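Okay, can you check this protein?
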Amino acid sequence: ERVGSRKPVLQCSQASHACYLAMPLHLPADCKSDLVVCGISGKRHAGVRELHELLKPLVLQGRVALVPRDGLCSPESVNRYVKWARATFFIRVEATEEVRLASGWKEKFAPEDLVRDEHWTETALDDWDAWDAVVHNDGDADALLVRAQELAPRINALVTDPSLSKHKALPDDMVKKTEHTTQLPECMVPGWGVSPPKKNAQGVYEVAPAVAGTPGAAATASASAAAARWAASRPAPSGGSGGFTPKQPQAG
C-alpha cells in the first residue's frame, strides 16, 4: 500500500506463526517490506524442515518471515530478498548422507533422488559462502534445538537494528545466474510428492489412479491434474522412455 510518499510495503498477517514467502519471489523494484527475512537452505532431508519448525515459535511473529528451502535455492533469490526485506539472515543446514537417509532421503524415489540432487534448485547455493550461520545437523534433535535457540536472538535483533545485517543488494548483472539452468528431470514431474508414478511395461511413468473417498484422493487428483498440464507442455517421448502419463481418479 502507499502511505503519502512511502514506497509500497507488503503486509504480513499477525498470525500465530512466522510469515511465509513462496519461490520464486519477483517484485517491482520499488516494492519494500518492513519484514526481516530469515532464509534456511540445505539439501532435501538435511534438517531444513526441522530447523524451520524449531525457529517458528522463537522468532518475532509478524516481524520475521521464515523462508525454508524452495523459497531460498539460488543466488538470485538471495539477492531478491536482500533488495526487498528490511534485513536478511541466511542459514545453511548441512548433514551427512547417513543423516539424510535416516530422515527419509531416497525412501520414495530411491536412486532417482540422486538425479533430483543435480537439479539447479539443489545445487545453486552449494558454492555460496555468505551464510550468517552454518548448522551441522548430526541427527540429534536436542542439539538442533540448542542451535535454534542460539540463532533466534540474532535474527530478532535485526527487527530493531537492521544495520546488523551484513548483506547488501547487488546489481542483477553481478549475481551468478543459476535459476532454470538445468532441465526438470522426469522424476520431478508434478504429482510425485503425493502419489509417486511408476514406469509401466513401455517405460512410461504413470500416476496410479486415486479412488474417490479414500485418504489422499483429493490431493492425488490435484497432483494428477497438475501433471497432465505439465505433460501437455512437453514434447511427446520418443521410444517410449521417460514419458509421463497421468491417470485420472476413479469413482469409488
Q: What stands out?
A: The helical segments are 48-55, 75-84, 97-102, 112-116, 120-123, 141-160, 217-232. The radius of gyration is 20 Å. The longest helix spans residues 141-160.
